[in-house]
Write a structure and sequence with these properties.
The chain is of the alpha/beta class. It is built from twelve helices and eight strands. The protein is about 50% helix and about 15% strand.
């Protein structure tokens, strides 16, 4: 009887596990399909002299080229900049090399990406634009201002991944090779990332988005929704993996740029507790660009939680100044 009862219990458990597996699989496949469909919304792939580039546009007025950060694409850039399109700005959000429908070429350096930015402006018939680079979008935006200065009317760098001399102290410890390897494993799998979103969102926000999750929990409803939207937009991570792999190693390959030669109105923004340690690099970058303004927050992490409205206000102010 005991043996028979054990077999029945095992059968019930096995049935429950199989049912749970198929339920989990169905949820994952549904969410992944929705994410893939959302990543396509509003964008087109433009043929340029530098190859295909995915782009999404909104609004009318002076153009702003929006260059997204790590884990993004045109969708991440537009999610941040769309409110600017309602304030007299033509937002042009693009996907960098290896993200979504912009292929990764053999040369995916910031210099090559900067040339591709110029090619995109050519394809759109835009002679000059303000340019905004967020996080890992910073190096190519700086290179655009250096390699094609006549194409840039104003420059905005938000929590930029940028070079700083070794003597410049940082408020955040450097990212270890072990952590890089862990992130690359997580970012190489849609299922692993989806699982982290659903069962370990706090650690994901802390380590992948470099933002204290306790600050997100204490933020406004709007700010919490913004963080959740950004995290969920990283799916499908498989469609962004090539770009993510490059971005993960980007900061360790950067050398000094000739920042003193940049001659356009420039705004640089970061937070002291950014887990990616962009604060000191942002300060240094602003100090080397003539006339650049630096805005630093004590908290907010890499996503500048709690400062979204203030950051947009400063960007609008700069764009107005450059237009005049």
């Amino acid at each position: 009887m005991k043996h028979r009862a054990a077999l029945v219990a095992f059968g019930v458990l096995a049935t429950a596990l199989v049912a749970a597996f198929f339920t989990l699989r169905a949820s994952f496949e549904r969410d992944l399909a929705l994410a893939a469909a959302r990543a396509l919304q509003g964008s087109e792939v433009m043929d340029t002299r530098c190859g295909p580039i995915e782009v999404q546009q909104a609004g009318e007025g002076p153009p702003l080229l929006m260059v997204h950060g790590s884990g993004g694409g045109h969708d991440q850039g537009m999610a941040w900049a769309r409110p600017l399109s309602q304030q007299g700005v033509r937002v042009i959000a693009m996907s960098r090399f290896g993200y979504l429908r912009t292929p990764r070429p053999a040369d995916a350096s910031p210099e090559a990406q900067a040339d591709a930015h110029a090619c995109l402006l050519d394809a759109l018939g835009i002679a000059q634009a303000a340019v905004m680079g967020v996080s890992a979008g910073g190096p190519s935006v700086l290179q655009l201002a250096l390699r094609h200065p006549q194409r840039v009317s104003a420059l905005v760098l938000v929590v930029p991944i940028a070079y700083k001399p070794g003597a410049v102290a940082d408020s955040a410890p450097p990212v270890s090779n072990e952590k890089d390897a862990l992130l690359l494993q997580l970012l190489g799998s849609d299922f692993l990332f989806w699982t982290a979103l659903n069962v370990a969102r706090g650690p994901l926000v802390r380590h992948l988005l470099a933002t204290p999750p306790e600050q997100v929990a204490a933020a406004s409803v709007e700010e919490r929704a913004r963080v959740d939207d950004l995290a969920e937009r990283i799916l499908p991570v498989s469609a962004r993996a090539a770009g993510l792999r490059d971005d993960t190693r980007l900061g360790k390959r950067l050398g000094p740029y000739a920042l003193e030669s940049i001659g356009v109105p420039t705004l640089v923004i970061s937070a002291r507790d950014d887990g990616f340690g962009t604060y000191a690099a942002a300060q240094y970058t602003a100090s080397r660009i003539p006339g650049a303004k630096f805005v630093g927050f004590d908290d907010g992490g890499h996503l500048l939680v709690g400062h979204d409205a203030a950051v947009r206000a400063r960007v609008v102010e700069l764009l107005g100044t450059s237009a005049r």
